[in-house]
Amino acid sequence: MPTVITAQGVKESKNLIEELMDTQTFKSCGLQKLTKEELQNLSQWLKDALNIVCQKGKFEAKVVILMQPRLKTIGDLEEAIIIKDFDGDKVIIERAYGEKWILEAKTWCSWSWRYEGRKVLLKFGYVSSKLINDEGDVCEFWTEQGIH
Q1: 107 pLDDT above the threshold of 90
Q2: How far apart are CA 91 and CA 74, in angstroms?
């Protein structure tokens, strides 16, 4: 379980559920009513159900998951679809909740053309983003602009 240092300097452990959900979602699901033990049990069940495998890689810890149709996000990764590839130099992606963005490759992305119209994982940032394919290959992009 990750350890977090709060504003008061006290260490507090977060379970998987708290890591994956923002505060509003956590409360809207009524999970604040559960005891710490119940939350831990639910977190363990979720971890087992998603079959999460973490491996240390050359970037941050890689998270390999089976992309289930209803799964939209896991941690700071989300599903995205590469709508259009422009020879590995630029892509148009659609984020998990419908936003579309143009991303410009920091270096040529050798595999993005094969994923046009397909799901990939996205680590989105307003300046810089990463796309990860189902083989674990990573391409880094400048986040250029949103499309309306």
Answers
A1: yes
A2: 22
Half-sphere exposure of residue 63, counting CA atoms within 13 Å on the CB side?
18
Domain edges within the chain:
3-50, 73-147
Q: How far apart are CA 127 and CA 3, in angstroms?
A: 28
Whether the Cβ atoms of residue 2 and residue 19 lie closer than 8 Å to each other: yes
Average pLDDT value for residue range 81-87: 95
Mean pLDDT over residues 86-101, rounded?
A: 92
What's at 125, amino acid-wise? Answer: G
Cα angle 78, 105, 115; round to 5: 55
Alpha-carbon dihedral 57, 62, 67, 71, rounded to 10 degrees: -170
The answer on pLDDT for 11 being more than 60 is: no
Q: Please, what is the end-to-end C-alpha distance for the chain in angstroms?
A: 39
pTM: 0.52
User: What's the chain's average pLDDT?
Assistant: 76
DSSP state of 33: G
CA dist., res. 77 & res. 123, Å (int): 5
Q: Which residues make beta-bridge pairs with 142?
A: 104, 128
- Of 60, 54, 99, 103, which Cα lies nearest the Cα of 79? 99
